[in-house]
Design brief:
The structure is a homodimer. Chain A has seven helices and two strands. Chain A is mainly α. In chain A, strand 1 and strand 2 form a beta hairpin. The structure holds a DNA duplex.
Chain lengths: 181, 181
DNA sequence: CCCGTTATTTACCGTAACGCGAAAAAGTCA
DNA sequence: TGACTTTTTCGCGTTACGGTAAATAACGGG
């Protein structure tokens, strides 16, 4: 593909778990070209400026296979929210709860989105080709992740609600002798 | 705390989802000091060189609260593995399976570790203070995440095994007339 | 007194990954 | 002409890191 096409299709494929704007894509393409991993061929177009379509070279394909055989290291889940939880008593609870509710919505949305894609691409839940198997597995981990995090958000929201206004039971036991101190 | 103490205690607290070596810690401490968010006080020690213990200033505490009230953006899960799944047909399956098995072990280990910490810190599963509530929630999302990913790893390993040697059923139906093509 | 070790901090040098804002080049359409 | 799309590029910056090593201070052993 060309850089422009990559930039446009990025969001609907890998974009779910990796961001890149067009600048970065062009930059990486340049690097790969310099290393001889890809090669650009100008494709003449009518009605538009010509585009530079890149294709993998032999060395590029070999490098890709080699990269694919390297062990991956499980990524850190760098999340502001988790840092806040580590020192929860230093923060205000209310904005955190609001944040969690936004997150809950986000993860539910994502879940629904993945589910829709799954039903569309794999109505019977089975992949036919190797490439499809990979995409199916990607969707599966996406679904699992979003569900787990969404459930946790619900739990966290409840927990924080209890923290925000603590021990209502005790207040109900005997309200006649104590005022809101 | 001092930079040295922070570096030592980092791994057993936030270190589960955020890495930082001592250099980065010292660097960040310098930045924070330059911004007036923390202040260093030399503490004389006997038997060791003196240390520089940092404490939050008024502005630092305010900045922290302010930061804590900002909405967080859900982090990307940048994972090599997911990229490989996106183009599964360009890679060799075997090293991927090996990778997945290592990952499975890793996530199971993590799960067990979190479980141990949970049982130690919260034997009854309940937090008493606000700070503890945060730590408990941190453990909970850790457990949920590790379990989800570990289960997915099992699924993925099985799926890839089926891809590696496809359709064994057909071979079993009638082995008398066909050899291993 | 030199030496090795631990604790504590700092300096210096690099890089990968990224964002911002702009602009260049080529073509269309009003 | 001017505005707008497509396609690519440039030049600037930052953040976040990693590596290696050194400086500083105190201890203890030979």
């Amino acid at each position: 593909m060309s850089g422009y096409e990559l930039a446009k299709t990025f969001d609907s494929s890998i974009g779910f778990f990796w961001k890149a704007d067009h600048q970065q894509i062009y930059r990486e393409l340049s690097k790969l070209r310099d290393r001889g991993h890809i090669q650009g061929h100008e494709v003449v177009q009518s009605g538009k400026p010509n585009k530079l379509v890149y294709t993998l070279t032999q060395e590029g394909r070999a490098a890709l296979r080699h990269w694919g055989a390297r062990p991956s290291s499980p990524p850190m889940m760098k999340d502001d929210l988790l840092v806040r939880l580590c020192a929860l008593d230093s923060f205000d609870i209310e904005p955190l709860r609001a944040d969690l509710m936004a997150r809950l919505e986000h993860h539910r949305d994502r879940y629904a989105r993945y589910e829709r894609i799954l039903n569309k691409l794999f109505p019977d839940g089975k992949a036919t080709s190797v490439a499809d198997t990979g995409k199916l597995l990607g969707l599966r981990i996406g679904l699992r992740h979003e569900q787990a995090v969404a459930e946790w958000c619900e739990e966290a929201i409840e927990t924080l609600a209890a923290v925000a206004k603590p021990a209502p039971v005790l207040l109900l036991e005997d309200t006649s002798r104590e005022s809101n101190g």
